[in-house]
Specification:
This protein is an alpha+beta fold. The protein has 3 domains: 126 residues, Orthogonal Bundle (DNA polymerase, domain 1); 65 residues, MutS, DNA mismatch repair protein, domain I; 159 residues, 2-Layer Sandwich (Dna Ligase, domain 1), CATH 3.30.1490.100. 41% of the residues lie in helices and 22% in strands. A 5-stranded mixed sheet has the order 5-6-1-7-8. Strands 9, 10, 11, 12 and 13 form a 5-stranded antiparallel sheet that branches. A 3-stranded mixed sheet has the order 3-2-4. Helix 10 packs across helix 11 and helix 12 crosses helix 15. The relative contact order is 0.09. Bound molecules: magnesium ion.
């Protein structure tokens, strides 16, 4: 019995999904972007575009300079999530130990009686075939005894490839591998290594690990081992995804004071947003529930074409529903976000400025205690029920200025 790790990475995922859906895009250089403006960023490009040197992360403008006849397609996150889920379901038919690493790649942990090269190849090909039959998309498969080497292998055999590196082949496999190919070594670290005269993983082995630790700290030690081809030998199976995030509140007395109702809704939206960010999820559906003084209820559900986990978006949209319905005294307010997805799946279409601000706000509350900083609309409720002598409320806009003071990682 032998435990192996398979890394499956879809080829040019977003662009391939678009090409599979639209025959007119097949065989053409395609850029997928958040929007079609020239200053927006290329989230993914097809292999036909890669041939011209286009890479994801470039601006559309740069991309068009290299490949002027490219077709620019506005990304459809919903479509990609749906395809990703279908792929994940297929992977789960091979083993229940599947780790979804990002929207288009995952690790499988499989135990085999026969781990001969032929048998591993058969396994890899059957996974690739199953994905292709379901989605018309190709992927690359890396197979080894740990996640690090499996991921490097799938990258080296792109597109539509399969590469097997057995445990005994790892030292030879790593020997001439450029250090920047190792997951965990970013461009900056690769640059530092180049300055030390290190280009290939094989060179790292000849340097004592203590020297790496002295120069780069704990990260240095980790890198030293990664360059020898060490890595996790088991996958992390995600806990089931929650269906919704919500909070509700029964008011101390029934009221039609719209300022108070908005203030309470603002707090609930803040609580929902904070929890979603803590657990790294976002959603695209808002459900607002109101219970009136006569115990009748109102519930409205609205779906949006974008994903969010920030307080202001939740509040703004929920309040626009609520304002229409405040025609009699209200007893309870509830707000939930549904359509939940892991946040990293949406990360290429994000609003970075806004994320920075929220990160700053969450860091302050984590370091200095809950409600150290909060949207100022929440003040109305606080003052009414629980007068606060000294409060540190900032307008959402002003948060931006102090975000620069906040460390990346709270200590
Ligand atoms: Mg990929």
């Amino acid at each position: 019995m032998k435990k192996i790790i398979v890394h499956i990475d879809m080829d040019a995922f977003f662009a391939s999904v678009e090409q599979a859906l639209n025959p007119l895009l097949k065989g053409k250089p395609v850029f997928v972007s958040g929007n079609t403006a020239r200053d927006s960023v290329i989230a993914a490009c097809s292999y036909e575009a890669k041939k011209y040197g286009v890479k994801s992360g470039m601006s559309v403008y740069e991309g068009l300079n290299l490949c002027p006849n490219a077709v620019i397609v506005k990304g459809n996150p919903e479509r990609y999530i749906d395809t990703s889920k279908r792929i994940f379901n297929i992977l789960q038919t091979f083993t229940e130990k599947v780790e979804l690493y990002s929207i288009d790649e995952g690790f499988l942990e499989i135990t085999l009686d026969d781990d001969s090269y032929e048998n591993l190849e058969k396994l890899g090909l059957s996974i690739k075939k199953a994905i292709y039959e379901e989605t018309s998309l190709t992927c690359s498969a890396g197979i080894s005894c740990n996640k690090t080497v499996a991921k490097i292998a799938s990258d080296l055999c792109k597109p539509d490839g399969i590469m097997i590196v057995k445990e005994e082949q790892i030292p030879e496999f790593m020997e001439n591998l450029p250090v920047e190919k190792v997951p965990g070594i970013g461009p900056r670290m690769a640059e530092s290594l180049t300055l030390m005269g290190i280009e290939f993983c094989g060179q790292v082995r000849k340097i004592p690990v203590s020297l790496f630790k002295k120069k780069f700290g704990i990260k240095g030690e980790e890198i030293w081992y990664l360059c020898q081809g060490f890595g996790d030998t088991s996958v992390t199976v995600q806990s089931p995804q929650p269906k919704s995030f919500g909070h509700s509140y029964t008011l101390m007395e029934d009221t039609d004071d719209i300022d108070l109702l908005l203030s309470v809704l603002c707090r609930l939206s803040h609580q929902v947003g904070m929890r979603m960010r803590q657990e790294d999820y976002c959603g695209n559906v808002i459900v607002l529930t109101l219970r009136y003084s006569d115990f009748t209820s109102f519930t409205k559900r609205k779906t949006y074409p974008f994903w969010f986990n920030d307080d202001q978006t939740i509040f703004r949209n929920a309040s626009s529903i609520m304002i229409e319905e405040c025609f009699k005294k209200i007893r309870l307010i509830g707000v939930s976000v549904l359509g939940i997805q892991r946040k990293y799946q949406m990360s290429i279409f994000r609003n970075e400025k806004r994320e920075k601000m929220l990160k700053a706000m969450d860091s302050i509350n984590k370091i200095y205690g809950r409600d150290t900083i909060f949207p100022c609309l929440m003040l109305y409720e606080k003052m009414k029920y629980n007068p606060v002598k000294k409060t540190h409320a900032f307008m959402f806009g002003e948060l931006k200025k102090i975000s620069t003071l906040i460390p990346e990682q709270p200590v």
